[in-house]
Structures are given as structure tokens and as C-alpha cells.
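Sanity check. The docking grid for zinc ion depends on where the pocket ends up, so I'm generating a full predicted complex first rather than guessing from homology. Inputs follow.
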Amino acid sequence: MIRQFSLSILVIAAVVCSALSAGARQTATGSIRGIVRDSLGAVIVGAEVSARNDATGSSRTTSTNSEGRFTFDTLEPGNYTIAVSQTNFKQAELHSLVDPRRPTVLEVRLEVAGTREKVEVGGKGGVAPNSESNYRHLREDGELETYAVNNLTIKRDVGTITLHSGHVSFVPPVLGRVVRGVFVGSGQFTLTPAISVERNYLHRMIEKDAVDEAFEKAVFCFTDQTFDEIKQQGQPSAGEPRARDVLNDFHHRVRTRPESPRSLVEYLLTYEGENVDAEILADLFNPKRDGFFTAYFFGRNFNDLRYYVRPRGAIPQMLAPEEVALVHLDPAGEREGIWYLAHLSTEYQKGTASSDEDKRIIDVQHYRIETAIDNSGKLTAVAELTFSPTVDGDRLLSFGLLPNLRVTRVTESDREINFIQEPKKEDASFYIIWPDALVKEKQYKVNIEYQGNKVIEDAGGGNFAVGARTSWYPSVNAFKDRATFDLTFKVPSRYTLVGVGKQVKSWREGDFAASQWVSEVPLAVAGFNYGVFKKKELQDADTKYVIEGYATAELPSYMRGAAERAGGAMTPAALNQNAMIDAQNSMRLFTLWFGEAPYGRIAITQQPQFNFGQSWPTLVYLPISAYLDSTQRWMLLGGISSRFTEFIQEVTPHEVAHQWWGHIVGWASFHDQWLSEGFADFSAGLFLQATEKTSDKYLKYWDRQRQNIVEKNQWGNRPNDAGPIWMGLRLNTYKSQGAYNRLVYPKGGYILHMLRSIMYDRNSGDKQFMDMMHDFVKTHFNQNASTESFKRVVEKHMTPVMDIDGNKRMDWFFNEWVYGTELPRYRLEYTLSPEPDGKVMLKMTITQSGVSERFKMIVPVYLDFDGKLVRLGEARLIGNSTTPEFKVKLPQKPKRVLVNAFHDVLSTEDVSQQK
Ligand SMILES: [Zn+2]
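Predicted complex below; grid placement will be based on this.
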């Protein structure tokens, strides 16, 4: 699976901060303010709003302004009925308490009149999103309570905050707990990494082994004892006048969602739209949770530095079980990145830190989703999720749903369920607020209705870009755990929809084509492709797999001009068969090497994107460029790099291999994604070796993979210098852009390639390696593998030659290649001399260099007999050293003697020289 981040320039519209009265004067009256939106989140201007005091019957009326907002000030405390109406919308009625201590804040959604046939229980409207009262109180700050502080220290895991002097102003309690404070004054934040891999990473980012940052402003959000800690050591004080501005600035930072993310960090923190208030609410609702602490520093050198200590996972948007993180957000800056991401330091002390820690809150077992797509590409859907909580007492559930898809209603049986989904340009993640505490392992069902656009985009010529591949439905733990799916789609009948799983039914409904897709084998993610496709199908007797091919007759619009200028009518569907044959050969080969795949079917489908492919279980998206022959590509692009041609050759086997690497066997955390991408790259290499007549392409493939790893960028950095592949996506930094793709893929591939070489046996060939791979798939079938669990499989299958340390462990290998960054060089010097008996004496030495003294490797030597390479044996090398002279009597004279001839070891240089 390739995940791409579009890197377009973000234009942040000037956001007008909501006008909050900062007055601290006591008052006996209260206020109501709110915003009125339609079901898609757009504000409604000029709606009539009335507020009636239920006790006195007195009523006031106003209308929404140009931002859809309304306000009622100086209201008597008590219960009110608020009615909102606008032409063409159904009237909405809400009940709310006016409390003089804090403003009542409402968000009202109006349904378009006549769109919903369903009669609501009691005749009232459904629950308005974002209307839950505790959530509303978290969204607004209310009156602040201020304490003066002096040399106060807050220590949380590896981070220490010292408030030298200044004031902390707290917002009022919600559900009896104070959860947010603003500091203005003089403070210092320091962090010393708990583990060396993080210290090294930090050093790459800021050229220091620890963080030491001064700040004048900071916001703390917490559900731990922070309030009591500060209150006890501080002195009650008059308000700090700047606190309100800092809070507003903070809200702007965490509540603004960019149109497209410019960096991984921005993608994780703001584009994926974590709702800070919802995350706080989750803890308030479940007192059994360990409290969290987060600090947002407006630092002197680093203006947006965020420190997280969260037992449920520091960065929820990342597949990472780690609880502690320090993130610097600065998308255009050189030092942006996740500076620190580690387990609690106590876990390292106790030796319990593990990538396999389970941070899930619920486990979805089954999704039943009915989706309709209309002629304009708008998607309307109802999803029923069957799930079980993995913990007790939670009420807030988070889903991966594209913010453009607006939730209109959530129900459980006939019960309306409250939910949170802020407008799509804000912190728009979707959460459900369950009415009562969820019980661990009990089974629940929930229905979610949503609609919107931007899931599919018409690319012309019957081609559609299907985006939002994990968020077109309310996914939970996508890629992390598995569920069965029952998917029904209704689309305009001229289009073909290709789903995951197996098609069990298709029928017509007027102008719509309907189809139902069921997966009995649990899948980690579900999706579909869409277009005016021509379909082909073949049955492979060897693998008992059905291989389907879907391609369009016409090019997408953006390519048509170039195709016409090149003078050619190009029909992608003409190459459908080729893609299917490559897929068939890949399936056969990988079944042989890794074991049977369970799905029974694979659809090879064309997507309009030119330069990447993607793989979902049973469904492969190939780039349109894979449906052009080499002449057409040449004509279209006016010449083409050989690398692109090679990418086209490798993309089909790579994506087919993801059926095993990523789907049958998933990855446990971001550290372990090399088990997916690297293994898929290794598999593409196998494909070249098996399908090409000579080993030429295969050797070039590994040479090119090596180039990717060691080629310097404009700052003189090699991808390999960005850090160990275990750092996954964090390898991408300002000075090592693209290092994730240029390292995790090829070096991950090399790691398997090296194991294959080390396990090779002259008698049994690759059998030992293949046995290991079969076992790896079998023991992780429909589960996630971690680097550690893969290592255990390697150790189970290790051969005597691999036991360099004599302890039946592969630590030496994993420390060097997975957790390390060293790359060796090799030099072989040899002589060949005739013996009296007609045979030939080979004498040779091998030198390893460029490494540390403890670096160990097993390096094979080959004999070249007229172009045919024969493996002579292998040398074991430790540190920068030269072997003693080997002597071997050969039956005949080889043309050459070669070290590392199959790129068996990832090295920066190999020299083989006859003296
Ligand atoms: Zn991939």
C-alpha cells in the first residue's frame, strides 16, 4: 500500500475568533449563543431563533447573522425552549438550561424539509451534532480562575515544565473536573529521551541530545491531578489579561483543519482533525481511565511545540502504541517532526514496553454498509457496525470518517445517539457519545447515516479517482484489526463498481445498478473502485483463484491532450489481459513461496492516478501508466526514464504481494511497516527473477534498490542517514524528504533478501527460507506482525551458520539492519594457480570495512563459470577486518571469483580483484 500526501500550498482563511465577552463581573443573568447549520455543516443565515423561558413564558426572538450565529444576553436563569426556523427547513426545537455561571452554547442543525420520511420518536427532531452539554462547555471557556505561580515544577514522564513566574488561569470545571489551564509568564520545558534510538533521532532533528525550550505562553489540557498540583502551590490572583488571547490562539491552532496537509505532522495533528475537546470528554466520561497530560508551548525558538503523555496512545492518528510524544508543528520549517515518541519511561525500566500493546477501545466485528452514489458523485450511506468494547466504562468512540462526509444521524435500535462532528474546515473528526458506559466484551450495534462528496472524483472518459480509501466509511482501527463486511452499492447503471470480498448478488433498481459484496474472511480495511470498466476474468487452476481485470476504454481527461498530440488513440483496456497475466504469475509465485491466500479472488483494477498503485484485500488499484505499452508511454511523455519503466514492471507484483504483506499479515505499529512494504518489494524481486530468462533484470533490481538507499539528496544526506527503518514514517523530515519510501521499501526488501541469501543451502536451495516464510504467514494469519514477532520466527528457523553469537538469537542481525544504520564495504582479493594434478588452487582473503568493531555479517563468494554463477561458500566477518587466507582446490579454472555477486549483502561497495 502506498500512502501519498498531496503537498499543495495551504491557504488558511482568516478565521474570526468567536467574540467572547472577557468581562469578569458577577452577574445574575445568563446567556445563550449558538450557530445554525444545515445537515452538511454549512451555516444558515437569517434563520429565526426564539428563546422561551419555560417557567415565565416570556419569549425573545432574534435571527442568525452572516456567520449563522445568534446570541441572547441577560436571560433570567432557568429552563428555556429554543426554536429555530427557516424557509425550506424543518423547524428545530431544543431544551436548554441557562446558568448564570457560564454561557449556554448550542449548535442547531436544520434538516431540509421533506427529505426525511422517518418519523422521529415523540415527533421531535433527531439529536443535533455537537450538542451534548458537557461537550459544549468544553468548547467554550467561561470565566477563568487564576493563580500566581513561582518556580513551580510539573514533571510528566521524561518532560519537566518549570513555571519560573507568572499566572495560570483555569477554565471552569466540566463534570466536576478542571481540565484546562493557560500559563502566561516565564517558563522552561526540558525533555531527556528515555532510550537511545530516540536520543539519536532527536539529535538528527535539533543537533542536541535533550530539549530545553523557554516559553512565555502555554496551554495545558489534562485529566490528571494538574489542577490540584498548581492550585496547592499557587496563590489566588486577579485575572491575567492576556490569558484569553492565548486560549483563543490555542483554539485556532487545534481547531483549524488545512485543506490539504503539507507534512506528515500536519496530516496527523490537524488534517486528520483530532478533536482535543472530544479526547478530554472521553476521559471525563470514564473515570476508570488513567488521566492524561498535554502541554502546548508557544516557545521562544519553537512556536508550536506539543508534549503529550497519554496512556491511550500519545498520537491517536498514528498506528503507535507509544504514550509519550513531543511534536514540533511547523510545516515549512526545517525542524518540524515528531521529535520524541516512546513508551512511558517506567515501561522501559520494567522491560514491558512493546509494539504489540493494544490501545483499542472497541473491536468492530462486522460492518454492514449500504452506499448509494448518484450521478454527481455524491455518496449517501447507512452503516451498521457490530462491535464489542475492549475496555470497560468508555462512552466516547472515535471513527475514521472523511470530514466531507457529514453524519446526519446515529441510532441504536430506536434510540437517538449523540455525536460530535465539527465543520469540515475545523477539527472535524467524528465521535459517537454513547448514552451510558459501555460494558467490556458485550456486543453492541450502532447505525450511522452520512452523506457528502469528495469520495469519488470524475477524471473523465469513464475514469474516477476513488479517494478516502480508509475513510469513505466510519472505520475503526483501519489496518489494525479485522472485521467481516457486507457491502451493498447502488450506482448509476452505466458505471461498474468493484468491491472487496466476493460479489454475491447484482440487480437493477431503475436507472441504478446494485451489487452486494460479502467478505467472510475478516479484512483490515474495505474499499471499492469505480468507472466505466470493461471486465475480464480468468480462473487459475493452480491457486484456485479467480483473477478479474477491470480497465476503461478511454484515457482520463488530463492525459487525452498529450495522447492526441502523440497521434495515438490509446485504450487502457487493451492491456487489461497483460495486467491479469502478471497478477496470475504473481499469485502462483507467492503462493509457492509464502503459502495459500484465503480470499479466492483478486480484482486488478485501473485507477486514473499515474504514478502509484495501492492494494486492498481482493482489490488492487494499478496506476493508469500500467495500462500503456512502452511505446505509448514514450509517446505520451516524450521520452521516459528507465526508472519509470522499471516501476511499471514492479508495481503489479508489488501490489499483489500486499495480499500477503499488509492484509493476510498486518503490521502492528508504524515501526513495523517495513514488514509490509519491504516484503512487497522483496516479492517484486522474486517475480523478476522467476519471469525473466536471465538474471540481468533481477540483479539490476537489487542494484537500483541499493542506489535508492545510498543516493545523496541536495543536503548530502542519504536516505540511510535518516535513521533505522524501524522509525517508519518518521524518517521523512525536512532534510530527508521521501526517506520513508527510499528506505523502508528497499531496505526492508533487502533484509529479507539477505536472510534468503544467508539461509541458502547448496543442496536444498531456498527451502529453509521458504519454510520460514510459510511459518511466518501461518503463525500471523489474519493478525498483525511486529518486528519482534518476525524476529522470533527467524530465530525459530535459524540455521547453525546464522548463530554467530552462539545464543540462538538473531539480535546481531536485527540490531544492524532493522535498528541500525551501518552499511559495510567488501573487498575480495584472490589468486588462481594451476596444480600439478590439473586442478586449480584458489587463495583468497575478504575484507569488511566501513563499520563498527562489532558489526557481523555472513558474506557469500561466487565462482563465475562462463557467465554461470556458482556459490562457493560464505565467510563470516566481524568488524573492520580481513579474513585469514582461504585455500580451495577447484576442479576447473573459473573466469572470475566474486564477493556478494547477487547483492546478497546491502553494501556500499564490492570489489573483487585478482592479484
Ligand atoms: Zn506497497
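Relevant for the grid: Residues 1-2, 654, 658, 677, 680 surround zinc ion (CB under 6 Å).
Also worth noting: The longest helix spans residues 739-759.
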